[in-house]
UniProtKB/TrEMBL annotation:
The chain crosses the membrane at residues 269-295, 318-342, 362-384, 411-430, 442-475, 496-516, 732-757, 784-804, 824-845. The keyword Secreted does not apply. The lineage of its organism: Bacteria, Bacillati, Actinomycetota, Actinomycetes, Kitasatosporales. Coiled coil: none annotated. It is a multi-pass membrane protein. This is FtsX-like permease family protein. Residues 59-81 are annotated as: Disordered. It comes from Streptomyces lusitanus.
Length: 859
């Protein structure tokens, strides 16, 4: 009980100093709990949607995906004969059955030819209005579509684009473009996470999406009373045989959730990873806080030991303070995490993904995880200072002698840090010299971990030299005030090292990712300059296939000399060694593609691969399967027949563009794949007539004005788009890393604040002999800047090393250019100085307000 009382008294006596540490715990726990609540809420939203929209049993083509995805290589959804509907209706236990047609391989435009597809990446679904949809949609305006000139739209899409009854919209599919006027607007009775949905009558949907009547994509079956879904499925399969895919509502919902699960898992664990980084940074803040509090209570601890307190009791007292801090920060963090999840939902809503707070899901495990994680991390971080406090002898504490083992511990720390850093550097060297990226990545991960720990451990040793260098460059110009700031930073190298290490972690990751991102852009740009021999590239940023109508529009554009089509499909390759490579990608293109993309050939002539009955393979495949020029490969095309193709070229497996691709001609593909199964183009390459590049560029954009889903880019545009894509990804990562940097800033603030309290008497004496408030504040600001720049130098140097090593691994995949973004690195370094200035504002202000006489009288 005495220990608890002492801990409580000390905790509340230093509540202001504990606040920043509590904020660090709060932020880290909030990020973890917010991530869990946000992802659980998304899962709940989609679970409700999938459960509400799934019929009791669904019958579809055997090649249709379980999750209902309708994109096929030919741009049309897989279909089943309309006669299946009558067969299903004859099955025992069927109350009703209805044939439907829908597709996600479509683009919908308004009267101005602007796309109505969601900007959030959600699907655009066009289908036939049916009774199953009527369960989840309520017509709030107008009426359901009747006839080919009518279409109905969901309310969310209508609101976003200002659509109203009577407006004309167009549906672009592989079949062609169909225009209709809005006859009705329907709202979801459950949350729509962000899909744009349009409804036609069944006959119009068949003509528009498939190009033929008497077919359906699905047959929705409703069970008679008392018949379970599983039993209904058995009855339907018994009636139809094994030629169709038959799923219950539960199986359909599960398949949909699995298709979403990969994305959700990546997002969830990525965000938790950044929360873990924030926790790691917070550990340094907590260690520093308790180390300084213990140091400031040295004499108090000596008195406690002198009157009978044992080491364990002193140790326990400090740990109880940490426990109180962890519980308080974690409880507040759990509440803040729920608020953060709501904020993320609002942010996603602005981006086009609607999530309702009605579906807000706080599982019982979420607060438990937050509390356990926050408390455990806080107590572990406080263990070393607590152990150090317990080791102080009563007489040494009463003399303020500090810990006798400090010098010995310093040597042990220095040696351990150098060993770990050396081991990390050696692992990074092995990663950079690896022959295979997979092997090198393991060494890279080990090197990152060891070098990071090594720098953390050896930080106090480095602090002395680096702070002196920074002081000579930056502080000497400020005269005595600058020299005092330098000495203050050097007074406790362990404290300076730990404070700088907190900032080092976040900045090391920023520098590493900047180097990797910049190198990827530079490598891709160099590869484009070397390999691409065409003027324009036409493709969809959403991954949509290029419709035949768009291809014809591109070919008809004035000023175009040639257009190269580029298709992609899968096939089973049976090689001369008797082995079969299942579901292997093969690219079919026009012969001009050999000119449009200058692929490095290690054997044979790539142009010959586009001759009838010919193909190319890449070097690694050739080695693995003993394939040579002239070898015959049996190729069983998906949706087609099997042909024997002759290998005419072996290409390099390296490179950025089309790395590892295997080529044949479109004419060869057409021999084995029926016309109605031929895949649509993934992209197009277009070259302008001599001297007509500017004219052709404008003509292409005009020609594709009817097709807003496609982008026309010349090489400059393509490079900028690539740079923007990588830049957006890095900005998102930097935003997540900002949490760790904020916690590191709190650490600098806390260190300075506690340092000011520790030096109260000293500050009073300096003021008494003539140091002005302005000089005092400047001294504290300069000290903060030096600590921040020390951490920045460590972090940026470490991050550049990591990034350069990672680029060596990427070079094995064709990204051979190392590009260090010095403007970004310099900007981060300068920004660190401003971080130091900002962190010192409050401590410097409080120091300047001290009463001189009271400060001198402080014991």
């Amino acid at each position: 009980m005495t220990v608890l009382k002492t801990s409580m008294r000390n905790f509340f006596a230093h509540k202001g100093r504990m606040a920043l540490s509590a904020v660090a715990v709060l932020l880290s726990v909030a990020f973890v709990c917010g991530t869990l609540v946000f992802t659980d809420t998304m899962n709940t939203t989609f679970d409700k949607l999938f459960a509400a929209t799934s019929s009791d049993v669904t019958v579809s083509d055997k090649d249709a995906s379980d999750s209902g995805e309708t994109t096929s290589g030919n741009g049309k959804p897989p279909v089943i004969p309309a006669s299946v509907l009558d067969e299903v209706r004859r099955a025992e236990g069927v109350k009703s059955a209805e044939g439907t047609v829908f597709s996600t391989s479509v683009t919908v435009v308004d009267a101005d030819k602007d796309s109505l597809s969601p900007t959030s990446g959600g699907p655009t679904i066009v289908g036939s209005w049916n009774s199953n949809d009527a369960r989840t949609m309520e017509i709030t305006s107008g009426a359901a579509p009747e006839g080919g000139d009518q279409i109905m739209v969901d309310g969310d899409t209508a609101d976003k684009h200002g659509l109203k009854l009577g407006d004309e919209i167009g549906v672009i599919s592989a079949v062609g473009t169909h225009t209709a006027k809005i006859s009705g607007i329907a709202d979801f009775t459950v949350t729509n996470p962000g899909a744009a949905i349009f409804y036609m009558d069944t006959a119009t949907a068949q003509r528009t999406l498939v190009g033929e009547s008497n077919v359906f994509t699905n047959v929705n079956v409703t069970a008679a009373p008392g018949v379970s879904h599983d039993q209904l499925k058995k009855n339907v399969v018994a009636e139809l045989g094994a030629g169709y895919k038959v799923l219950t509502a539960e199986e359909t919902a599960e398949a949909n959730q699995e298709s979403l699960g990969d994305f959700m898992g990546v997002m969830k664990y990525a965000m938790l990873g950044f929360a873990g980084i924030a926790f790691l940074v917070g550990i340094f803040l907590i260690i520093n806080t308790f180390s300084m509090l213990v140091a400031q209570r040295t004499r108090e601890i000596g008195l406690m030991r002198a009157i009978g307190s044992s080491r364990k009791q002193v140790n326990r007292s400090v740990l109880v303070e940490a426990l109180l801090l962890g519980v308080l920060g974690s409880v507040l963090g759990v509440g803040a995490g729920v608020g953060l999840a709501v904020g993320l939902m609002e942010l996603m809503g602005q981006m086009g993904m609607e999530l309702s707070t009605d579906d807000l899901t706080v599982a019982w495990t979420t607060p438990v995880v937050g509390l356990v994680l926050g408390v455990v991390v806080t107590v572990l971080a406080a263990y070393l200072p607590a152990r150090r406090a317990g080791k102080i002898s009563p007489m040494a504490a009463l003399r303020d002698a500090g810990t006798p083992a400090d010098a010995k511990a310093g040597w042990i720390r220095a040696v351990a840090g150098l060993v770990l850093t050396g081991a990390g550097g050696f692992a990074l060297y092995l990663a950079g010299t690896a022959d295979k990226a997979a092997d090198g990545s393991l060494w890279l991960g080990l090197g990152v971990v060891l070098s990071l720990i090594g720098f953390v451990v050896v930080g106090p040793v480095l602090a002395g030299g680096m702070v002196r260098v920074l002081g000579a460059i930056l502080l000497r110009a400020f005269g005595p005030v600058g020299r005092m700031a330098e000495r203050n930073a050097l007074r406790n190298p362990r404290r300076t090292g730990a404070t700088g290490a907190a900032l080092m972690i976040g900045l090391a990751l920023v520098a590493c990712l900047s180097v990797v991102g910049s190198s990827m852009v530079a490598s891709a740009t160099e590869e484009l300059d070397k390999a691409v021999g065409t003027d324009f590239i036409v493709q969809s940023d959403r991954g949509e296939l290029i419709t035949p109508q768009a291809v014809e529009a591109v070919k008809a554009a004035p000023g175009i000399d040639r257009v190269t089509e580029y298709k992609w499909t899968e096939a089973d390759f049976t090689t001369p060694d008797g082995r079969t490579a299942k579901d292997t990608a093969i690219t079919a293109a026009d012969p001009t593609y050999a000119t449009d993309l200058r692929v490095e050939t290690v054997s044979g002539n790539l142009a010959d691969a586009y001759k009838p009955g010919s193909m190319s393979v890449h070097e690694d495949f050739a080695k693995d399967h003993d394939v040579r020029i002239g070898s015959k490969i049996e190729v069983a095309f998906t949706d087609g027949t099997t042909g024997s193709l002759t290998v005419r070229a072996i290409t390099s497996s390296e490179g950025v563009i089309d790395a590892g691709a295997m080529y044949t001609s479109i004419d060869t593909l057409a021999r084995y794949v029926p016309a109605d199964k031929m895949p649509l183009d993934q992209l197009l390459f277009a070259s302008a007539q001599d001297g007509q590049k500017d004219t052709a560029y404008k003509a292409l954009k005009d020609a594709l004005g009817e097709f807003p889903q496609y982008e026309v880019r010349d090489q400059t545009d393509y490079k900028e788009a690539l740079k923007d894509q990588i830049g957006q990804l890095l900005n998102m990562i930097y935003g997540l890393l900002a949490l760790a940097i904020i916690v590191a800033i709190l650490g600098v603030v806390n260190t300075l604040a506690l340092s000011v309290v520790e030096r109260t008497r000293e500050i009073g004496l300096m003021r008494a002999i003539g140091l002005s408030r302005r000089q005092l504040r400047r001294m504290i600001r300069m000290e903060s800047v030096v600590i921040a720049l020390f951490g920045a130098l460590l972090g940026l140097g470490l991050g550049i090393g990591w990034g350069a090593t990672a680029q060596q691994l990427l070079a094995l995949e064709g990204l051979k250019v190392l590009d260090i973004p010095w403007p970004t690195i310099t900007g981060v370094f300068i920004g660190s100085a401003f971080v130091g200035l900002f962190a010192a504002l409050v401590p410097a202000f409080r120091a300047g307000r001290m009463n001189v006489l009271n400060a001198i009288a402080t014991d």
